[in-house]
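DM from R.C. (forwarded with permission)

"hey, sorry to bug you on a friday — could you get me a structure for this? deadline for the figure draft is monday and I only need the backbone to look sensible"
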Amino acid sequence: MMRINETVIKKLLWGFLMFLLLVPLIQEKFSLVNLRPLGGSFVHEKDTIISVKGWLAGAYQKRKEKYLDEHFGFRNWFVRLHNQIAYSAFNDTQTTGVVVGKDQFLYQQGYIDAYYGDDFIGKDKIERKVSKLKNISKLLKKKNIDLVIVIAPGKASFYPENIPEKLKRNYHKTNYQIYKTELKKYDLHFLDFEKWFLEMKDTSPYPLFPKTGIHWSSYGELLAADSMVRYIEGLRNISAPKIKINKISDSGIMMDRDDDIEQSMNLMFDIPDINMGYPSFDILTDSLTHKPKALMVADSFYWGMFNWGIANRIFDRSQFWFYNKSIYSNEFKTAKDVNEVNLLDEVEKNEVVVLMATDANLPDFPFGFDDDLSDAFHLRNGSQSSLREKNVQEYIKAIKNTPEWLKMVKQQAVDQKIDLDVAIRNNAEFMVEPN
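My reply, with the result:
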């Protein structure tokens, strides 16, 4: 047997090592291999320009290092390899807040917290919010605008059986439970999709929630959209456009947002999914059809509806105020900031204002819209509103200083199961404005 020259072996190893080092640089420069982009939401680090000031301060080196860390060749492949090893070997994810449940059902921690009530903000706070929404509803109704509250189901509330054992704990009061009670007590227009979806869970022909996504399924979303439109139709006494489902395709390949959590995990291999239903549908109109003008203030559970065109196909150029921060509309190319528009002018263009959130977002619901709109109404009313509030405060003081009156209001608070301060203010407002 011929002995292989050690020098040749060393040269081969050295050449292979250089190849490994150069390949990422070549890929970075020429992008010879088309790599799948990473999923999820993140901000890319921009390249920086060298300057004497930046160099001496060390800012240039830090920014350049961050940029190179994100842009070296085959980075996406290495990220996916790293994430796949963590998931396959340790059932762990490298995505913040993502939880792997039984049978590889994926959750986000916030939805599990909402299901067990760990994010509960307190009954009094919710009651104050709902009381304010009731006042807003009255003010809007004077302008012939209806306020509708929609609570979308949460993934953990829908699939509690697949929450991992280590995260199961005792139940507490939840924001959803109290909101449901208070919204009914204050007689606000309320669509409880969490309750409805649970009622349909065992009889629905297609899954209402996916295995590897966090939002309602494409099929469930269309059912919710149709129900919401029919509710508004009855509320406004109009003939709104109709959703007609032509066909539902059964597929094990996830489409739309049905695997949005999995996409954010950036794995090399797909997680086995359950078959989902994907409806194809038409929007029917006729000469009697009226497209209602609607403002949607909502979280990400509205995105799917917006993406298939509900804003223009069913509503009349409806705007989507995402978390009451960014405004999306087919009427303009890029999103606007809510602070760029006149709040009251925009609100009063509509026939309906819909506030929507899933249970995990109820601690922040309705995302400051109630405070902003209340302030805008008071600012517009100016001195009239100040005078009214002054009169309300005088009656509040009178109630508290009149034992018999206070005793009667306390009994009202007990009978109506509301906070005493809320009952006192309700009586004071009634004295100022009986109608």
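R.C.: lifesaver. The mean pLDDT is 88.
me: no worries. The chain has 18 helices and eleven strands.
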